[in-house]
Amino acid sequence: MTRKQFRWALALTAAAAVGLPSLGKWYRRQRQQRCALDGAPIEPIYAVKILGADGGDLRFCCIRCAEYWLERQSDTGYQVRVTDEVTGHSIGADDASFVRSTIVTNHATGNRIHAFRRRADAEEHAAANRGRLLVGEDRPFQPAAKAAESARDLHQGKYRSPEKDGETR
Amino acid sequence: MALNGYVVLDAFFSLLACLASVITVVLVGVSLMRLRAGPAGDTTWVEDRVYLAIQLIYVILGLTVASWVALYLLLNDMVPLWPGAMCIYGVTRIGEGSAGITGWLPTLVLLAQAAKPLVAFAAGAALVIYRVYRRAGASELLPRVLGALLVVALLGTVASATELTYLGVPKRDVPVESGCCSSAAADRDGIAPAHSQPSWLTPAFFACPLLLAFLLWPRFRHVEQSRDPAEGDAILDARLLTSLALAAVALAIAGRFAADVAAPALLHLPYHHCVYDLVTVVPESGVALGLLLWGSFSVGWAGVVHWLGRSASTAPWVAAESRLWQSWAVIGYLGAAAMFLVELWLA
């Protein structure tokens, strides 16, 4: 390999080293979906999917947005899928363990609820971030108990502030 | 297992590779025997067979790369078939703890994955020795060329036979015990989130390729050329040995870095230490890993040609070939380091 060829090869590799990651990042950003409630970009690890009876699906940026949207619907029969924060895989909301912790996933909605596939992961997150496991009626997507409370929130303002959530720890 | 397009494709590539490897083993074996038994200096018959064997090595190399890609496409395609598997890692754990031949599935798939780069490296090594042999017209290199070809053919046979065995073992009713990679691996190995990984890992990962690029940089080689041949050779020996050792360390560190730093950071999943998902979701990181592998292979080939290609009549050709692969190694290492740096910065 001559010196000129070496320099060319090095320059091409340098261009690829800068260009490919930038291109990849741009491509993935283009594909990034927006929240069906507030249009915010969806961070894949916190994504929530609501499947309708007609087979269509809507995606939300956090659990709070999905709850707001659900409470506005008059018809039922929706299936909710949340994202396991450990693996990034989608799981049914009924199978998930939820934790309310100090970590805010979305500053617009103040969502502090995190979803995990395994209870052990949820407990670990709760212990590490001063959170608590949500059980029974505290779990998100519980229609009866939460509907009234959330409806009040919606009338008072679109979202609750993050500080208000902190009180429930 | 379900017979889908990727199974057929992978089996087809592996079968052809196995066939080509067996033919090469026979061809090279006969040539070696003929070379030993025949009169000294009469190598025409063997040289003709070596030429054919080299063509077969190209075929084996191409089929190995094709079946390598087909294997990962197949594993990815199998993910939805097992509810317990969430990515390729889950599929590679199918059969774990089972009795009988299905219990061998994880070992078989691991061997099939590890054998591909070995075949590629060995084929490259045989081809660089053959290049020196052809350029210099040095018949004394013929036994070494044949030896290298035999190693490639044997490795090719083992690799393709392993893959065919993996494809042939029924998997349909074998449950996956481990489930998702990160959860299972975390349970087993005590893996911690990305931020609690050892602080030396990232600096060590970037230091190794940079150090190797410095050692192999063309200007640095002039030190050897400006001295007398014996002294220059000794310096080159030491430099190549150091580079080879460092390349092995760099590969080991890169494996850990990809799983424990790059995957959690680039996937935005702090607990997810999965290289399979990293390459699937962030394909450019696969290019970076490929460049690193290319750099390591190039160092290896530079060493192979330096130590196995040397004879009385090949010295200038060996030096030129060794320099060429050292230059490719520099490009590979610098490219890999730069690409990971940009990726982490953009993440």
Q: How would you explain this protein's 3D organization?
A:
The complex is a heterodimer of chains A (169) and B (347). Chain A is α+β, with helices and mostly antiparallel strands. Chain A has helices at residues 3-31, 63-71, 119-128, 143-156, 162-166; strands at residues 48-51, 57-60, 79-83, 90-92, 97-100, 113-116, 132-134. In chain A, strand 1 and strand 2 form a beta hairpin. The longest helix of chain A is centred in the first third of the chain and has 29 residues, at 3-31. Chain A is elongated and about 70 Å long. Chain A starts with a helix and ends with a helix. Chain B is an all-alpha fold. Helices cover 78% and strands 0% of the residues of chain B. Chain B has twelve helices and no strands. In chain B, helix 2 runs parallel beside helix 5 and helix 9 packs antiparallel against helix 11. The longest helix of chain B is centred in the last third of the chain and has 39 residues, at 229-267. Chain B starts with a helix and ends with a helix. Mean pLDDT of chain B is 85; it is low at 178-193. The interface between A and B is medium-sized, with 28 and 31 residues.
Salient structural properties:
heterodimer; A: 169 residues; alpha+beta; 4-stranded antiparallel beta sheet; 3-stranded antiparallel beta sheet; 5 helices; 16% strand; elongated; B: 347 residues; mainly alpha; 12 helices; 0% strand
Main sheet specs of chain A: 4 strands, antiparallel
Number of helices of chain B: 12
Could you spell the SSE succession of chain A in H and E letters? HEEHEEEEHEHH
Number of strands of chain B: 0
- State the end-to-end distance of chain A: 66 Å
Q: Give the mean pLDDT of chain A.
A: 80
Using the CA coordinates, give the radius of gyration of chain A: 21 Å
**Low-pLDDT runs of chain A:** 157-169
End-to-end C-alpha gap of chain B: 39 Å
Outline type of chain A = elongated
Oligomeric status of the shown chains? heterodimer
| Backbone shape of chain B | flat
Strand line-up in the sheet with most strands of chain A: 2-1-3-4
Succession of helices and strands of chain B: HHHHHHHHHHHH
Q: What Rg of chain B do the Cα atoms give? A: 22 Å
Helix fraction of chain A by DSSP (H/I, runs of at least 4): 25-40%
What is the number of beta strands of chain A? 7
Question: Strand portion of chain A, in percent?
Answer: 15-25%
Query: Uncertain spans of chain B, ≥5 residues at pLDDT below 50?
Result: 178-193
Estimated structural class of chain B: mainly alpha
**SS class of chain A:** alpha+beta
